[in-house]
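Researcher: Sequence of tRNA pseudouridine synthase B follows. Predict its structure.
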Amino acid sequence: MQEMEEISSKEKNGVLILNKPIGMTSHDLVNIIRKFFNIKKVGHTGTLDPDAQGVMIVALGRATKFIRFFSDTNKTYHAQILFGNETDTYDISGKIMNKKEPTFSAASLKDSIGSFAGKIMQRPPIFSALKKDGRHYYEYARQGIQIDIPKREVEIFDIQLLDAKVPFSANIRIKCSSGTYIRSLCHDIGLSLGTYACMGKLERTAIGRFDVEQSFSISDLEKMNPEQRMEVLLPVDDFLSSYRTVQSNVRGDRFIKNGNKLFQWNALDHFDNYQDSELLKIYDSQYHFVGMGKYSQSDNFVYPIKMF
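Model: Prediction complete. Tokens:
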């Protein structure tokens, strides 16, 4: 990695769209970004398994405060399904638990994949970072402890068969809600076809509006100097597009910048069109993003929740 030059911490607040390579954990990627930008506070909006590659959104500095508000959460994936084996991890890296020779037709495969569109109930894999009683599922799995894993609702907005070598493998494209496990989806598709299946290759091609074409690889960042790296950071409010805004006037600036509530006479906007408890992006009189707030209809105030 290139020698780091000191950059004012005031400037290190933004969001990166990264392309995680195969073989690297999400934690590894965060540590690399810390070194590239010489900053401790780095967070991401969702993990990718070490064997997967693709888009990750990483926030730096004060932008990490707003990860929970990010509105671009739907994901798009390209996944490979391998038929015939069930593994304990639901992917090709796991231990084979069951085998069954696949015999389905191309028409059955297409029908099965299409049947998973819409809202479905899905059981996450035991080897996952979800928690039960304060412990990760994978901790129970590694100790051989059986636990009841409840199903939960996820939504598949679109699922398409890209190509297949019937009946041994298929490549699919999935656009889905946050929290969907593609490993579980591949496993369930196998069961619906009267056989077993596990996930092979996986690439996350997009998170919301941000796709792999907009992302930067570790190699890209290695070639940049510190100033160039700063230039690829995006403003945090780019990732809060689903929220409406409220803007203060000059008088109101001193209230919101101190974290105080904003009322209608201190704002450029009328509050009549806001819904009670609606989350809003707050901007100052110069239209600089200053944080997130919540509107209270009972007293006609916008209460700051998280300030930039």
